[in-house]
Amino acid sequence: MNSKSRSASVLRRVATALVAGAMLGATLVACSSGGGTGSGSASDVDAALKKGGTITYWSWTPSAEAQVAAFEKVYPKVHVKLVNAGTNTTEYTKLQNAIKAGSGAPDVAQVEYYALSQFALGKALVDLKQYGFDSLKNDYTPGPWSAVNVGDQLIGLPQDSGPMALFYNKTVFDKYGLTVPKTWDEYVADAKKLHAADPTKYITSDSGDSGFATSMMWQAGGRPFTADGSKVTINLQDDGTKKWTSTWNQLVEGKLLSSVPGWSDDWFKALGNGTIATLVTGAWMPGVLESSVKDGSGQWRVAPTPTYDGTATNSENGGGAQVVLKQSKNQALAAGFLKWLNNDPASIKVFLASGGFPSTTKDLESSEFLASAPEYFGGQKINEVLVQGAKDVSTGWQYLPFQVYANSIFGDTVGQAYSSNSDLNAGLQSWQKSLVEYGNQQGFTVTGK
Fold this sequence. Notes:
Blueprint: H1 8-14, H2 17-24, H3 42-51, E1 53-58, H4 64-74, E2 78-83, H5 88-101, E3 108-112, H6 113-121, H7 142-148, E4 149-150, E5 153-154, E6 157-158, E7 164-169, H8 170-175, H9 184-197, H10 210-219, E8 225-228, E9 231-234, H11 239-253, H12 265-273, E10 278-282, H13 285-292, E11 300-303, E12 320-324, H14 331-343, H15 345-353, H16 361-364, H17 367-371, H18 382-391, H19 403-408, H20 410-420, H21 424-441, E13 445-448
Parallel strand pairs: 1-2, 1-3, 9-13
Antiparallel strand pairs: 3-12, 4-5, 6-12, 7-10, 7-11, 8-9
Helix pairs in contact: 2-5, 3-14, 4-15, 9-11, 10-11, 14-15, 20-21
């Protein structure tokens, strides 16, 4: 997913439980009908690209059209029908309906990391190991690569990544004598100092965002979700999660967070006028700030995500992959397109030109990428910070196989703690209770701890 598409987090929050529930209705059904043989090799991919044919690709990224055009110049015998089926939940609903019906799915589709396991569990995705794509492991950073490996299958190739970083308004920090925080304790201290000096200003905004919350749990060492096929365990009170809440509760209960909804007009305005002084978010944010917060030009900088004990560790926020559907009647050709899309330098160059943050180690380590010093960020070489953040991402994180639904009810459960400035742990326990009940209703075997 591209940086200019990141309003997805808001769309996920407002997704209705009805839509999410409809998607899950088919998750536990084997969905390989209408597809190819399910076996192949690297030579099959090469042969398919030479022979040519037509495939369909669902994507909402701004770079998709240019990437498809570039691909067809290299492989003129292949025609790629590009379809924008809607962003995130909208696309996933259509995709799940097609899978359930046994027809109508594309050959290749864009799927965000948080939703991948849902489709993998339904056996709707091609295992790309058969084409030797597991040999590409070292081409990608650990977080995204881990996300596309579900169980013993490689179900996609990463496109972008969203290692977390601290974006801060240097003008505000300088004016109020704030030190760029290296730890979360220092971050809380900055929040208190800033709001005491000027009650109209806040260290950041957070009215309850599921994607942000899970990223923060991840960074703190939390692993609240584990899934093994249809067996799921949820523990939203594990040590890492409680480490995060012990910090964030100080901001929530202390009324030190702006309640301006993320991605709203007022939110962009607050980022521009200094009312909101920092954002802890993914590496795709620079493009958003430059295009949507023009008043902040020259004021913003980037620093590593604060830690709990000084040991560098990070998590991802956002990002996605492309997958090959088992419904595809030409899986080898679809796999060839996918490999070119997310592994060929020519394609990645197009992706970067549209503002994307890559998941490929070669591009992250290139001197040109690292030397980029945008005027918006005062000439800071921001990619040096963001790339190190990608290297520091801890592995082992899992999303729920019904994370789309989980995100849709976050506001009704944990969100209530934000609105009442009360203990997040109570909200997380309410979220867990709802998720355990829902998962078991859908045919999973869900255990809550």
